[in-house]
């Protein structure tokens, strides 16, 4: 599907205050999010996307003092892509010294409210990436703003997708589900303390998800408590024991 571009005229962009730096190519693209509250109502109302993009431009020009919105392109939940600075122009959003290396593409998800990128927003981001490759000499890399810069951007869910290699949603032969270790066949539980590589594998994945437990291969009180809290968070029955469903959720559920 071709990119569904919202031109600057269409979204009522202000004129840039100065000339852009020129870029003939980049190593790739960095993905961003808004980092604030985005109302979940945006999903049903494209007019909210337009208003949000305009407010981002105002913030960048009036708050940050930039010549224009900092992003190259901005993707909304309706698989539309707003023109920012566009291809061959230096973005401003990646952080000082990091803008000539990558174009900057924003997904209109927030840190609160609308936080889980929908399939259409992911498609929109990838439509933007392909457009920048085609028109702006963008290389293969797709990274997050936080790669090489101290920031939470692009947020947990969007960054997890970037780390998976930014696949097109919806599967297909080129997009197999991410493999993860299969359930070991025994339920991990306490007491008594259980020992094993399967425990270590589960603990390592919990650490990756941000849980502060030791990766020591010992399923004791701390593992049980983390398991129980994780099960509650995911709406699983809070037994504190890693059964097949909990094991799979540890890999398959989005990190929140
Ligand atoms: Zn960012
Ligand atoms: Zn929209």
Explain what you see.
- With 256 residues, the protein is α/β, with parallel strands linked by helices.
- The chain contains seven helices and ten strands.
- The chain has helices spanning 8-11, 46-63, 119-136, 156-163, 197-208, 221-233, 244-252; strands at residues 5-6, 26-32, 37-38, 73-75, 81-83, 102-107, 112-113, 138-144, 194-195, 218-219.
- It has a six-stranded mixed sheet with strand order 1-5-4-6-2-8.
- Strand 4 and strand 5 (81-83) form a beta hairpin.
- It starts with a strand and ends with a helix.
- The protein binds zinc ion (ZN) (2 copies).
- The site of one zinc ion has 5 residues, from loops.
Characterize this entry briefly:
This protein is of the alpha/beta class and about 260 residues long.
Entry keywords:
256 residues; 14% strand; binds zinc ion
